[in-house]
Amino acid sequence: MNMDKVVCECFGVTNGQVKEAVDNGATTLEEVTEATGAGTGCGACNDDLQRLVDFFTTERDS
Ligand code: FES
């Protein structure tokens, strides 16, 4: 995965920042949003964010 790819255009939040939030303990979309600010603008990225959160939490917890 390209960690520099921006997932949330509104706040310029990248895949890598979502991973970092998960690695730092975030488990839900809400917690990632709180940690990064991603998803609190237009909301268009929420589905993609959720997919990333699911992916990184599974990776982290396996
Ligand atoms: S793209 Fe993430 S809130 Fe708009």
Structure overview:
There is one protein chain. The chain has a single domain, classed as BFD-like [2Fe-2S]-binding domain (Arc Repressor Mutant, subunit A). The chain is mostly helical. It starts with 5 loop residues before the first strand and ends with a helix. Helix 1 crosses helix 2 and helix 1 packs across helix 3. A hairpin with a 4-residue loop joins strand 1 and strand 2. The chain has a two-stranded antiparallel ribbon with strand order 1-2. The model has no long low-confidence stretch (mean pLDDT 98). The chain has three helices and two strands. The chain is globular, with a radius of gyration of 10 Å. The site of FE2/S2 (inorganic) cluster has 10 residues, from loops.
Question: What are the SSEs and their pairings?
Answer:
Layout: E1 6-8, E2 13-14, H1 15-23, H2 29-36, H3 46-61
Antiparallel strand pairs: 1-2
Tally of helical segments = 3
Catalogue the unreliable spans. none
Report the radius of gyration as a whole number of Å. 10 Å
Please report the total strand number as a whole number: 2
CATH architecture: Orthogonal Bundle
Instruction: Assign the CATH superfamily.
Output: BFD-like [2Fe-2S]-binding domain
Strand order of the largest sheet: 1-2
Bound molecules: FE2/S2 (inorganic) cluster
